[in-house]
Protein backbone atom coordinates (compact mmCIF):
# COMPACT_ATOMS: atom_id res chain seq x y z
CA UNK A 1 0.00 0.00 0.00
CA UNK A 2 1.27 3.46 -0.94
CA UNK A 3 0.14 6.78 0.54
CA UNK A 4 0.40 9.92 -1.55
CA UNK A 5 -0.89 13.44 -2.05
CA UNK A 6 -2.43 15.50 -4.80
CA UNK A 7 -0.62 18.63 -5.90
CA UNK A 8 -2.39 21.94 -5.37
CA UNK A 9 -2.87 23.36 -8.90
CA UNK A 10 -2.52 26.87 -7.52
CA UNK A 11 1.14 26.08 -6.81
CA UNK A 12 4.02 25.00 -9.03
CA UNK A 13 3.81 21.23 -9.58
CA UNK A 14 7.59 21.05 -9.23
CA UNK A 15 7.49 22.72 -5.81
CA UNK A 16 4.67 20.39 -4.81
CA UNK A 17 6.73 17.32 -5.71
CA UNK A 18 9.62 18.61 -3.62
CA UNK A 19 7.33 19.26 -0.64
CA UNK A 20 5.73 15.84 -0.62
CA UNK A 21 9.03 14.13 -1.34
CA UNK A 22 10.65 15.84 1.63
CA UNK A 23 7.65 14.79 3.75
CA UNK A 24 8.37 11.15 2.78
CA UNK A 25 5.15 10.35 0.97
CA UNK A 26 5.16 7.57 -1.62
CA UNK A 27 3.62 9.12 -4.72
CA UNK A 28 2.06 12.20 -6.24
CA UNK A 29 -1.51 12.22 -7.52
CA UNK A 30 -0.63 14.65 -10.31
CA UNK A 31 -3.57 16.81 -11.29
CA UNK A 32 -3.18 18.68 -14.56
CA UNK A 33 -5.37 21.76 -14.20
CA UNK A 34 -5.22 25.53 -13.82
CA UNK A 35 -3.99 27.92 -12.89
CA UNK A 36 -0.40 26.69 -12.46
CA UNK A 37 -0.42 22.99 -13.31
CA UNK A 38 -1.83 23.09 -16.83
CA UNK A 39 1.32 22.30 -18.80
CA UNK A 40 3.96 20.61 -16.64
CA UNK A 41 7.11 19.57 -18.49
CA UNK A 42 7.51 15.77 -18.39
CA UNK A 43 11.32 15.78 -18.25
CA UNK A 44 11.39 18.20 -15.33
CA UNK A 45 8.69 16.22 -13.52
CA UNK A 46 10.51 12.94 -14.09
CA UNK A 47 13.79 14.28 -12.76
CA UNK A 48 12.14 15.32 -9.50
CA UNK A 49 10.17 12.09 -9.20
CA UNK A 50 13.39 10.13 -9.60
CA UNK A 51 15.23 12.34 -7.10
CA UNK A 52 12.61 11.71 -4.42
CA UNK A 53 11.83 8.14 -5.50
CA UNK A 54 8.16 8.94 -6.02
CA UNK A 55 5.70 7.11 -8.23
CA UNK A 56 2.76 8.89 -9.86
CA UNK A 57 -0.97 8.56 -10.49
CA UNK A 58 -2.63 10.69 -13.18
CA UNK A 59 -5.49 12.99 -12.20
CA UNK A 60 -7.49 15.00 -14.74
CA UNK A 61 -9.42 18.25 -14.51
CA UNK A 62 -12.82 17.51 -12.89
CA UNK A 63 -14.56 20.28 -14.84
CA UNK A 64 -14.04 19.07 -18.41
CA UNK A 65 -17.47 18.74 -20.13
CA UNK A 66 -16.33 15.71 -22.12
CA UNK A 67 -19.78 14.08 -22.44
CA UNK A 68 -21.74 17.19 -23.44
CA UNK A 69 -23.54 16.23 -26.68
CA UNK A 70 -21.86 18.74 -28.97
CA UNK A 71 -19.34 16.89 -31.16
CA UNK A 72 -16.82 19.72 -31.41
CA UNK A 73 -16.81 20.10 -27.61
CA UNK A 74 -16.43 16.36 -27.07
CA UNK A 75 -13.56 16.29 -29.55
CA UNK A 76 -11.80 19.21 -27.86
CA UNK A 77 -12.08 17.48 -24.46
CA UNK A 78 -10.79 14.24 -25.97
CA UNK A 79 -7.72 16.06 -27.30
CA UNK A 80 -7.10 17.63 -23.89
CA UNK A 81 -7.43 14.30 -22.10
CA UNK A 82 -5.06 12.67 -24.57
CA UNK A 83 -2.57 15.47 -23.95
CA UNK A 84 -2.79 14.63 -20.25
CA UNK A 85 -2.46 10.92 -20.98
CA UNK A 86 0.77 11.51 -22.88
CA UNK A 87 2.23 13.44 -19.95
CA UNK A 88 1.18 10.78 -17.45
CA UNK A 89 2.60 8.01 -19.59
CA UNK A 90 5.89 9.86 -20.07
CA UNK A 91 6.45 10.12 -16.30
CA UNK A 92 5.65 6.50 -15.53
CA UNK A 93 1.99 6.55 -14.47
CA UNK A 94 -0.17 3.49 -15.12
CA UNK A 95 -3.44 4.92 -13.75
CA UNK A 96 -5.38 7.90 -15.14
CA UNK A 97 -8.38 9.19 -13.26
CA UNK A 98 -11.48 10.75 -14.80
CA UNK A 99 -14.50 12.27 -13.08
CA UNK A 100 -18.09 11.73 -14.20
CA UNK A 101 -19.33 14.46 -16.51
CA UNK A 102 -22.48 16.12 -15.15
CA UNK A 103 -22.93 18.63 -17.96
CA UNK A 104 -25.76 18.12 -20.43
CA UNK A 105 -28.80 20.01 -21.73
CA UNK A 106 -31.53 20.11 -19.05
CA UNK A 107 -33.90 18.06 -21.22
CA UNK A 108 -31.29 15.27 -21.45
CA UNK A 109 -30.65 14.73 -17.73
CA UNK A 110 -32.27 11.30 -17.99
CA UNK A 111 -29.61 10.36 -20.57
CA UNK A 112 -26.62 11.46 -18.48
CA UNK A 113 -25.27 7.97 -17.80
CA UNK A 114 -25.62 6.98 -21.45
CA UNK A 115 -23.88 10.19 -22.55
CA UNK A 116 -20.95 9.38 -20.27
CA UNK A 117 -20.75 5.79 -21.47
CA UNK A 118 -20.69 6.92 -25.10
CA UNK A 119 -17.54 8.97 -24.56
CA UNK A 120 -15.87 6.81 -21.91
CA UNK A 121 -15.54 3.97 -24.41
CA UNK A 122 -13.07 5.77 -26.72
CA UNK A 123 -11.41 7.46 -23.74
CA UNK A 124 -10.65 4.10 -22.13
CA UNK A 125 -9.23 2.86 -25.43
CA UNK A 126 -7.13 6.00 -25.80
CA UNK A 127 -5.77 5.68 -22.25
CA UNK A 128 -4.89 2.02 -22.87
CA UNK A 129 -2.98 3.00 -26.02
CA UNK A 130 -0.70 5.04 -23.76
CA UNK A 131 -0.27 2.24 -21.22
CA UNK A 132 -2.82 3.69 -18.79
CA UNK A 133 -5.87 2.23 -17.06
CA UNK A 134 -8.73 4.75 -16.99
CA UNK A 135 -10.47 4.85 -13.58
CA UNK A 136 -13.83 6.57 -13.02
CA UNK A 137 -14.30 8.33 -9.67
CA UNK A 138 -17.53 7.92 -7.72
CA UNK A 139 -19.17 11.21 -6.75
CA UNK A 140 -22.70 12.64 -6.71
CA UNK A 141 -25.88 11.09 -8.13
CA UNK A 142 -26.30 9.35 -10.45
CA UNK A 143 -22.62 8.36 -10.23
CA UNK A 144 -22.75 7.28 -6.60
CA UNK A 145 -24.18 3.76 -6.70
CA UNK A 146 -22.89 0.29 -7.40
CA UNK A 147 -25.74 -0.23 -9.88
CA UNK A 148 -24.60 2.69 -12.02
CA UNK A 149 -20.98 1.59 -11.94
CA UNK A 150 -21.85 -2.02 -12.73
CA UNK A 151 -23.69 -0.80 -15.83
CA UNK A 152 -20.83 1.48 -16.91
CA UNK A 153 -18.16 -1.18 -16.36
CA UNK A 154 -20.14 -3.68 -18.37
CA UNK A 155 -20.42 -1.29 -21.31
CA UNK A 156 -16.94 0.25 -21.24
CA UNK A 157 -14.21 -2.39 -21.67
CA UNK A 158 -11.05 -1.65 -19.73
CA UNK A 159 -12.57 0.97 -17.44
CA UNK A 160 -11.99 0.50 -13.69
CA UNK A 161 -12.98 2.29 -10.47
CA UNK A 162 -11.40 5.14 -8.56
CA UNK A 163 -13.05 4.81 -5.13
CA UNK A 164 -13.36 8.02 -3.12
CA UNK A 165 -14.29 7.06 0.45
CA UNK A 166 -15.28 10.61 1.36
CA UNK A 167 -17.66 10.84 -1.60
CA UNK A 168 -19.25 7.59 -0.48
CA UNK A 169 -20.11 9.26 2.83
CA UNK A 170 -22.30 11.85 1.10
CA UNK A 171 -25.15 9.64 -0.08
CA UNK A 172 -25.65 6.71 -2.41
CA UNK A 173 -23.52 3.62 -1.82
CA UNK A 174 -20.58 3.92 0.57
CA UNK A 175 -17.08 2.58 0.14
CA UNK A 176 -17.90 -0.64 1.95
CA UNK A 177 -20.67 -1.42 -0.54
CA UNK A 178 -18.37 -0.69 -3.49
CA UNK A 179 -15.77 -3.03 -2.01
CA UNK A 180 -18.31 -5.78 -1.40
CA UNK A 181 -19.90 -5.59 -4.84
CA UNK A 182 -17.21 -4.28 -7.19
CA UNK A 183 -14.00 -4.71 -5.20
CA UNK A 184 -12.17 -6.45 -8.03
CA UNK A 185 -12.43 -3.29 -10.14
CA UNK A 186 -10.97 -0.81 -7.64
CA UNK A 187 -7.58 0.47 -8.83
CA UNK A 188 -7.11 3.74 -6.91
CA UNK A 189 -8.51 5.23 -3.70
CA UNK A 190 -8.97 8.69 -2.18
CA UNK A 191 -9.26 9.30 1.56
CA UNK A 192 -10.69 12.48 3.09
CA UNK A 193 -13.25 13.09 5.79
CA UNK A 194 -16.52 15.02 5.78
CA UNK A 195 -19.71 15.32 7.80
CA UNK A 196 -21.97 13.65 5.27
CA UNK A 197 -23.42 16.65 3.46
CA UNK A 198 -20.61 18.04 1.30
CA UNK A 199 -17.10 17.26 0.09
CA UNK A 200 -15.23 19.00 2.91
CA UNK A 201 -11.79 17.36 2.38
CA UNK A 202 -11.16 17.24 6.11
CA UNK A 203 -8.35 15.39 7.89
CA UNK A 204 -9.16 11.81 8.85
CA UNK A 205 -11.08 11.61 12.12
CA UNK A 206 -12.59 15.09 11.96
CA UNK A 207 -15.76 14.09 10.10
CA UNK A 208 -18.18 11.18 10.24
CA UNK A 209 -16.43 8.55 8.07
CA UNK A 210 -15.85 5.27 9.94
CA UNK A 211 -12.22 4.77 8.96
CA UNK A 212 -11.78 1.45 10.68
CA UNK A 213 -14.66 0.03 8.66
CA UNK A 214 -13.37 1.63 5.45
CA UNK A 215 -9.88 0.19 5.87
CA UNK A 216 -11.35 -3.20 6.82
CA UNK A 217 -13.38 -3.18 3.60
CA UNK A 218 -10.32 -2.43 1.49
CA UNK A 219 -8.23 -5.08 3.19
CA UNK A 220 -11.05 -7.61 2.79
CA UNK A 221 -10.67 -7.39 -1.01
CA UNK A 222 -6.90 -7.56 -0.85
CA UNK A 223 -6.42 -3.95 -1.89
CA UNK A 224 -2.78 -2.94 -1.62
CA UNK A 225 -2.56 -0.07 -4.08
CA UNK A 226 -2.41 3.72 -3.97
CA UNK A 227 -4.29 5.83 -1.42
CA UNK A 228 -4.34 9.61 -1.87
CA UNK A 229 -4.93 11.77 1.19
CA UNK A 230 -7.12 14.44 -0.40
CA UNK A 231 -7.01 16.82 2.56
CA UNK A 232 -7.22 20.56 1.85
CA UNK A 233 -6.01 23.54 3.88
CA UNK A 234 -4.86 26.99 2.77
CA UNK A 235 -2.00 27.14 5.28
CA UNK A 236 0.72 24.78 3.99
CA UNK A 237 2.40 24.18 7.36
CA UNK A 238 -0.91 23.30 8.96
CA UNK A 239 -1.82 21.18 5.94
CA UNK A 240 1.23 18.97 6.36
CA UNK A 241 0.45 18.60 10.07
CA UNK A 242 -3.02 17.36 9.10
CA UNK A 243 -1.53 15.08 6.46
CA UNK A 244 0.96 13.49 8.86
CA UNK A 245 -1.81 12.83 11.38
CA UNK A 246 -4.00 11.33 8.63
CA UNK A 247 -1.13 9.19 7.29
CA UNK A 248 -0.33 7.89 10.77
CA UNK A 249 -4.00 6.98 11.24
CA UNK A 250 -4.06 5.03 7.99
CA UNK A 251 -0.82 3.21 8.76
CA UNK A 252 -1.98 2.31 12.26
CA UNK A 253 -5.29 0.93 10.98
CA UNK A 254 -3.58 -0.90 8.13
CA UNK A 255 -1.26 -2.69 10.53
CA UNK A 256 -3.96 -3.42 13.14
CA UNK A 257 -6.62 -4.85 10.80
CA UNK A 258 -5.87 -8.29 9.35
CA UNK A 259 -6.51 -9.02 5.71
CA UNK A 260 -9.60 -11.19 5.30
CA UNK A 261 -8.64 -12.97 2.10
Description:
The chain has 261 residues and is α/β, with parallel strands linked by helices. It has one domain (2-256): Divalent-metal-dependent TIM barrel enzymes (TIM Barrel, Alpha-Beta Barrel). Helix content is 41%, strand content 16%. The protein contains 8 helices and 8 strands. It has helices spanning 13-22, 42-51, 71-90, 112-129, 146-155, 175-182, 211-220, 236-256, and strands at residues 2-6, 27-32, 55-60, 95-98, 133-137, 160-164, 186-191, 226-229. The protein has an 8-stranded parallel beta sheet with strand order 3-2-1-8-7-6-5-4. Helix 5 (146-155) links the parallel strand 5 (133-137) and strand 6. Helix 3 (71-90) runs parallel beside helix 4 (112-129) and helix 6 (175-182) runs parallel beside helix 7 (211-220). The longest helix is centred in the last third of the chain and has 21 residues, at 236-256. The radius of gyration is 18 Å and the shape is globular. The mean pLDDT is 97.
Amino acid sequence: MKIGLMNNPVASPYDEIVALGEANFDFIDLTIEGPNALSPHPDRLLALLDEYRLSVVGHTDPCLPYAYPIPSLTQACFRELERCAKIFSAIGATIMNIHPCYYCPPAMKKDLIALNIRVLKPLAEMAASHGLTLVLENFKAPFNTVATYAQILQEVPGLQIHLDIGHGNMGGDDGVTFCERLGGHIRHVHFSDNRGTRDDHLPLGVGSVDWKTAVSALKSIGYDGTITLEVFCDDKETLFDYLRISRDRVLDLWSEIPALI
